[in-house]
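From the methods appendix. Each design record in this collection lists the tokenized structure first, followed by the designed amino acid sequence. Records were kept in a plain field format so they could be parsed without special tools. The example shown here is representative of the layout used throughout.

RECORD:
FOLD TOKENS (302 positions):
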């Protein structure tokens, strides 16, 4: 069992780096971290050096990163994954530097999503210089696609310390790796990919202020504002460039009685099962997983 300490980052390939960065800073409100790495933009939301990296090149998600305790835990994870049949690749020093981690390993989940386990992700204590005052508090969760969410849960719960918090029928499995209701979700989708990246904001007012700001700036709202009955979070999903779906949310439930929590099942066709406020619901747009044809370490980029 590999213990995931936290989510770390999303790494995404973008054909138009300037446009993606402009949206992430001016619209979403993230900070563009200083970097001397050509073709890579690091975006910051919280104590992490970055939680989102855009890499100029082919459009699509490159990897989702998760932090383990330390280098020793990473080495144990590497062995465990190889023993269970995964092809595991150690990142080079240059690749680790680009991710602002001490070391990392990369492998695919059974559905083709590229995962990276990292040790010692860099912390920055300087206050975040947000691109605008969206009220962002932190990187909240990441959502991946898999053809069968029950198969996905078997993988996540047998390989990692992920526990289901709630099911949305066969459509989604919401999982926690700490008291937060979900830091990881898997949605039903035919192909691997990232269906959204979530940022927690400080208040319900931020959600609604952001909604008006997005509408005023011509951003496509995918869903919300609404309230999920599972996590009780008030949400707003919107589409960025190159099919990257962002979410703001506020008020995610924390599961403090770990032993007493019983996962519930919600029927997605039941009114109010996605949005308690009965607003129109629509599946978020998935950014497809990029295939990783070159296992050999590279100097920069992916
Ligand atoms: Fe979400």
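DESIGN:
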């Amino acid at each position: 069992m590999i213990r995931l300490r936290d989510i770390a980052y999303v790494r995404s390939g973008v054909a138009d780096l300037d446009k993606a960065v402009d949206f992430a800073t001016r619209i979403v409100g993230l900070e563009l971290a200083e970097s001397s790495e050509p073709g890579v933009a690091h975006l910051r939301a919280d104590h992490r050096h970055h939680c989102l990296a855009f890499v100029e090149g082919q459009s699509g998600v490159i990897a989702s990163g998760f932090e383990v305790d330390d280098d020793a835990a990473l080495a144990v994870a590497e062995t465990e994954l190889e023993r269970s049949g995964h092809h595991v690749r150690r990142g080079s020093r240059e690749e680790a530097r680009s991710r602002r981690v001490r070391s990392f390993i990369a492998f695919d989940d059974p559905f083709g999503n590229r995962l990276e386990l990292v040790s010692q992700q860099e912390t920055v204590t300087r206050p975040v210089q947000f691109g605008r005052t969206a009220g962002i508090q932190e990187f909240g969760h990441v959502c991946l696609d898999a053809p069968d969410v029950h198969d996905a849960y078997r993988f996540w719960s047998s390989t990692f310390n992920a526990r289901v918090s709630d099911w949305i029928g066969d459509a989604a499995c919401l999982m926690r790796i700490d008291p937060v209701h979900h830091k990881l979700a898997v949605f039903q989708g035919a192909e691997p990919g990232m269906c959204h990246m979530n940022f927690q904001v400080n208040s319900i007012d931020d959600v609604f202020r952001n909604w008006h700001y997005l509408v005023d700036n011509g951003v496509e709202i995918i869903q919300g504002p609404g309230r999920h009955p599972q996590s009780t979070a008030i949400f707003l999903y919107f589409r960025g460039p190159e099919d990257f779906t962002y979410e703001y949310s506020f008020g995610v439930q924390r599961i403090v009685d770990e032993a007493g929590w019983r996962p519930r099942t919600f029927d997605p066709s039941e009114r109010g099962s996605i949005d308690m406020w009965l607003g129109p619901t629509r599946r978020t747009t998935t950014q497809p997983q990029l295939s990783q044809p070159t296992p050999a370490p590279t100097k920069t980029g992916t």
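APPENDIX NOTE: Residues 141, 143, 196, 198, 247 surround fe (ii) ion (CB under 6 Å).
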